[in-house]
Write a structure and sequence with these properties.
Elements: H1 4-10, E1 15-16, H2 30-43, E2 48-54, H3 60-68, E3 72-80, E4 83-84, E5 97-104
Parallel strand pairs: 1-2
Antiparallel strand pairs: 2-5, 3-4, 3-5
Length: 129
């Protein structure tokens, strides 16, 4: 089974990678503004954005932010390093375990209207890998 990165490249799905806001600056809107900008950049080349998020509670703020912004699971389960984990496998649960999420973007779908330059929207396609 190929990994997330190979599949996302084939589908032209840019990944927001290593997105962090220092804890002392969280809950100030900084993450939302950074995501607005990242999604606007992605919107220029793709209809879908992707990202991975850790499964532990210390990723809780990020998990909530992504859900609020409309990111949904890619439907493939949890991922470790270079592969998706299969049912029944024994693994070490650590920070390498992530859950990949995707978001269908449209030209007029952004939380910061200041970032939207064009009217209209794209038809949402079903994402499958």
């Amino acid at each position: 089974m190929r990994d997330w990165h190979d599949r996302s490249r084939e589908k032209n799905i840019p990944e927001i990678h290593d997105f962090n806001v220092l804890q002392k600056f969280q809950r100030m809107g900084i993450g939302s503004r950074l995501m607005d900008h990242a999604e606007q950049m992605i919107r220029e080349r793709s209809r879908i954005a992707g990202l991975g998020v850790g499964i532990f509670s210390n990723y809780g703020a990020a998990q909530v932010l992504y859900a609020q912004r409309g990111y949904i699971p890619d439907g493939k389960g949890i991922h470790e390093g270079q592969r998706y984990i299969q049912h029944g496998e024994t693994i070490t649960v650590n920070d390498d375990i992530v859950f990949y999420l995707i978001k269908h973007l449209s030209r007029n779908d952004c939380s910061g209207e200041r970032m939207c330059g064009e009217e209209g929207s794209w038809k949402s396609d079903t994402w499958s890998m």
